[in-house]
Amino acid sequence: MPALDPVVLFFLLGLAAGLARADLRLPGAIYEFLSMVLLLAIGLKGGVELARQSPVELLPQLGAVLLMGIVLPLAAYPVLRWRLARPDAASIAAHYGSVSVGTFAVAVAFLASQGVVYEAHIPVFVVLLEMPAIMVGILLARGMGRQTDWKRLGHEVFLGKGVVLMGGGLLIGWAAGPEGMRPLGGLFFDLFKGFLALFLLEMGLIAASQMASLRRHGAFLVVFGIVMPLLSALVGGWVGWLLGLSVGGTALFATLAASASYIAVPAAMRLAVPEANPTLSLAASLGVTFPFNVLVGVPLYLDLARLIHRLGA
Fold first, then answer.
1. Distance of alpha carbon 25 from its chain centroid, rounded?
2. Among residues 109, 132, 128, which one has the least CA distance to residue 61?
3. From first to last of its 313 residues, what are the pLDDT tens digits of the chain?
4. Closest-CA residue to 251 (of 103, 33, 80, 124)
5. Sign (positive/negative) of CA torsion 117, 243, 57, 44?
6. Where are the chain's structural domains?
7. Which of 9, 170, 265, 266 is deepest in the core (most CB within 10 A)?
C-alpha cells in the first residue's frame, strides 16, 4: 500500500486537531494568502501551457467542459429534491456541478508524486467549470424571474476571487510564456506543494467544524456526498477519455467532475438564493466530499482513468 502523500497528512492533522478542539488555527490573512497563491499558481501553469498551443484545438474540450457543468447539477437536483426543499436542493446541486480548486491541487500534487503526466492546459477547465453550475443552480431554485438581480449575480459569478485570480493567472502565463515566467517559478511553482500543505491544514480544521452540522442533518447528506462524486467521476473519466486526454488528464477530468465547490458557489448562492441554508451545502461539500476525495477519491480516480484507457484501447 503506497504511503500517504505528506500534503494529505497535513489535512489529517488539521482534521484531528479540529475534532479534538485543539488550539490551532491559521490567521485569516495567512489562509487568504495561501488561497491566492494556489489559485494564481494553477492559472499561471495553465497559461504557460496555453502559450505552447493553438486555443482553437481546445474548443471541443472547452465545449465538453461547459456541457458537463450543466449536466451534473441537473442530474443531482432530482435526488436532492427527494429529501430537501427546492432552494436547498438547487444550491447543493450547484455546488456539485462546480469544482473544488483545493481538490484539483491535491490531484495535481498526487499525479506528480506518482510520475503521471497530464495535459497542462487543464487549469483552463477549472476556470470554466465555476460558472455554468451557478447559473443552473439559480434557474433550478427560482426559474427565470424578475426578482433576480442579474447584474449583481453576473458580477459575483464572473468577478469572484477564484475566477479573477485563475483567469488572470491564465492570461499572465499565456502572455509571458515559459521564458517570461521563469523568474517567478520559484514562488508559484517550486513552493506550490508547501503552500498546498498549509492550505490543507486549515481545510482540515474547517472540515472538522462541519461535523456537528452533519450530525444534525442526518445520513442523507453523507451518502450523497460520497455517492455523487463517485458517479460524477465516472462521467468525467468517460468524457476525458472521449476527448482523447492522457491517463493523467483523464484522472484530473474525473477529479474535477467529482469535486464540489466551497468557495465560489457558496458566495454566489448566498446572493442569488438567500433562502437556501448554506450549512447544508457546506456540510456536504466540505464536511464529506472534500475529505473523501482527498483521502480516497483522488487515487481512486487515477485507477479509474487507467481502467477506462485499458478498456478503451
1. 23
2. 128
3. 455 677 778 888 988 898 888 888 888 888 888 888 887 887 788 788 777 777 777 788 888 888 998 999 999 999 999 888 888 899 899 999 988 888 988 899 899 889 999 887 787 788 777 778 877 887 888 665 666 667 776 776 677 676 778 778 888 988 998 888 888 888 888 888 888 888 888 878 877 877 776 676 678 888 999 999 999 999 999 999 998 899 999 999 999 999 998 766 776 676 677 788 777 887 888 888 988 998 899 999 999 999 999 987 5
4. 103
5. negative
6. 6-13+26-312
7. 265
Q: Return the CATH number of the domain spanning residue range 6-13+26-312.
A: 1.20.1530.20
Which residue type sits at 209? S
Q: Which amino acid would we find at residue 249?
A: G
Q: Measured between alpha carbons, how far is 59 from 154 in angstroms, rounded to an integer?
A: 23
The Cα–Cα gap between 263 and 145 comes to 25
Only one residue has cell 517567478, namely 184
